[in-house]
Specification:
globular; 360 residues; two-stranded antiparallel ribbon; 13 helices; mainly alpha; 2 strands
Length: 360
């Protein structure tokens, strides 16, 4: 059952703070009455093709997870699609991003496989997302033309082209580090070396008692070593060049679809004229913003990321806020509906969905 335990309450409290701060800085200088009037002038028919394109991204996401699951169990499309949609729905309505755990929990219960290994595949799924996002982000910041006089103020911070240039270079280094770590964990020899180091770490605490060191070794260190081994199961897919390329292509394609979905929305919004590549950049920026703690549904951080990204490309704050709010609402509600429908189809009780033992 989804209980508001201490950890969940802390997560919710931190999320409320982040979301409140983001909402304040996003809308403090935007007249609400003018924003409401602007929302009345929008051509909402463009929401329909935007939703269709966005839905296809979830289809590709399910196919990608289906491939990543191959080392654990070969499964059908719907067996991966329904947990994916339920997971996104739960993260949209409950605190603590419980959908990240619910997805593998549901698959584990229905397919009768080891939960840690399924959980690891969900982690690998997110790593593919991170690699694709960072690669796209680096490419866009390195190639998209940005006004040299750009200076956007957020509180005491100034966003300038020089800062953006530093960000994409730092992202490049971070991406290289992630890829290097994935490669090292994928090989049994280096993974065994990491595990030996992890299990010997308590010995460095020579000033503590032997019982404490052994307890630490049998507890935390053993769990970390086991996590690396489970991650390696997910990384097994990387050893097959064909599946690796397919997963990478699916990752880039699904994010391109989301960028295209945002660009389609802009066609119905007066005063918002950006290219597909710029819309793609805004989508990526939103994704980076919502990685921070937030309330369920990412309210506040989503808006801050969208307005921030659109203003980089010269869109006025009012129009940027109108587009971002509409895009968020019209793309969040269908995900919730689809997730509920998937839960009904597979017979999952939503109040129990986050527990591996209760995901029936």
């Amino acid at each position: 059952m989804i209980n508001l335990n201490r950890r969940t309450c802390i997560s919710l409290a931190i999320g409320l703070i982040f979301s409140a701060v983001a909402l304040y800085f996003t809308f403090v200088n935007i007249p609400i009455r003018e924003l409401v009037e602007y929302l009345k002038d929008i051509n909402y028919w463009w929401v329909v093709p935007s939703l269709i394109v966005a839905f296809l991204s979830y289809v590709l996401r399910a196919v990608r997870w289906q491939i990543i699951l191959l080392p654990v169990k070969k499964t059908g499309f719907w067996n991966s699609f329904h947990p994916v949609m339920i997971g996104f729905m739960l993260s949209s309505v409950f605190p603590g991003r419980v959908g990240e755990i619910a997805r593998p929990a549901i698959f584990y219960k229905r397919e009768g496989v080891e939960f840690p290994k399924v959980l690891a595949t969900a982690g690998i799924d997110r790593i593919f997302d991170a690699v694709a996002l960072l690669a796209i982000f680096i490419y866009i910041l390195a190639t998209v033309n940005i006004d040299p006089s750009l200076d956007i103020v957020f509180g005491n911070y100034h966003l300038t082209p020089a800062l953006l240039d530093g960000i994409w270079k730092a992202a490049l280094k971070f991406s290289a580090a992630i890829i290097g770590m994935i490669v090292l964990i994928s090989f049994s020899t280096t993974r065994a070396m990491f595990n030996r180091i992890i299990l010997k770490t308590p010995d460095a605490l020579f000033f503590t008692g032997q019982p404490f060191r052994e307890k630490l070794r049998a507890g935390l260190c053993t769990r970390i070593a086991g996590l690396l081994d489970n991650l390696a199961v997910g990384f097994d897919i990387l050893k097959n060049p064909f599946y690796l390329v397919v997963c990478l292509l699916l990752s880039f394609a699904l994010w391109a679809l989301l960028g295209f979905a945002l660009w389609l929305m802009t066609l119905g919004f007066p005063g918002v004229e950006i290219s597909f590549l710029q819309a793609f950049a805004v989508e990526i920026i939103i994704c980076f913003f919502i990685m921070l703690p937030s309330v369920p549904g990412y309210w506040g951080l989503w808006e801050a990321g969208g307005v921030f990204g659109l203003m980089i490309f010269g869109i006025p704050a009012k129009e940027a806020a109108g587009l971002t709010l509409s895009y968020h609402f019209f793309h969040l509600v269908p995900v919730i509906i689809a997730g509920i429908m998937s839960a009904v189809i597979v017979g999952v009780k939503l109040v129990n969905a986050v527990s591996p033992e209760a995901a029936d």
